[in-house]
């Protein structure tokens, strides 16, 4: 909910700012803000040692239970939402720059299709990265976990999830931040549009 609301508020405010600010500045800053948020998510530190994972699987505190949502997650959830809202607001009018009026429907459709495709491909890439590093972590912790939980396959699976999840998503966040930096570079170097060309009053920013 905070993420969705943050995007809506940021996109609305950024849309109004485009009457004075170039879209590439808005989208460029937004992509950098989103990349920063990803890096900060990757820096969350938890005890995912085999001992802690076994304890969690046998009724103890879950790995990461001591992480403060409001202090360590929520701030960067908001900066991520604001950044993505700025990116969407900045790139939507830029996608129709110099498109003939009779072709705006097609241009808008292509932009939305690219947005959906990019989200799907991005999710697939980050999921693959997460599973790869989680698999590597599994090879490191499976022996001490199975030794600590003999004859308990369900407990072993729970402990493995506790011990490997953080490793996977940490690397996924880092790869995501790298991809956002590449996107930011593309925005800064290839978006050429002045505020008076955005047609802010007529362009749909949703």
TrEMBL record:
SUPFAM superfamilies from the UniProt entry: MFS general substrate transporter
Source domain of life: Bacteria
Main location class: membrane
Localization, UniProt: Cell membrane
Keywords: Cell membrane, Membrane, Transmembrane, Transmembrane helix, Transport
Membrane topology term: Multi-pass membrane protein
Transmembrane stretches, start-end: 29-46, 67-91, 168-188
Protein name: MFS transporter
Organism: Micromonospora trifolii
Source lineage: Bacteria, Bacillati, Actinomycetota, Actinomycetes, Micromonosporales
């Amino acid at each position: 909910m905070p993420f969705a609301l943050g995007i809506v508020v940021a996109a609305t405010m950024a849309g109004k700012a485009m009457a004075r600010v170039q879209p590439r500045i808005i989208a460029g800053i937004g992509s950098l803000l989103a990349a920063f948020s990803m890096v900060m998510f990757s820096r969350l530190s938890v005890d995912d040692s085999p001992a802690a994972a076994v304890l969690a699987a046998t009724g103890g505190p879950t790995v990461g239970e001591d992480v403060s949502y409001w202090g360590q997650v929520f701030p960067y959830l908001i900066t991520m939402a604001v950044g993505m809202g700025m990116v969407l607001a900045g790139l939507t009018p830029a996608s129709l720059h110099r498109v003939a009026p009779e072709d705006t429907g097609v241009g808008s459709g292509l932009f939305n299709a690219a947005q959906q495709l990019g989200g799907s491909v991005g999710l697939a890439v980050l999921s693959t990265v997460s599973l790869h590093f989680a698999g590597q972590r599994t090879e490191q912790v499976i022996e001490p976990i199975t030794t600590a939980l003999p004859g308990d396959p369900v407990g072993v699976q729970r402990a493995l999830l506790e011990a490997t999840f953080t490793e996977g998503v940490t690397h996924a966040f880092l790869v995501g931040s790298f991809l956002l930096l590449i996107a930011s570079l593309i925005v800064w170097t290839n978006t050429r549009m002045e505020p008076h060309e955005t047609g802010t009053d007529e362009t749909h920013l949703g």
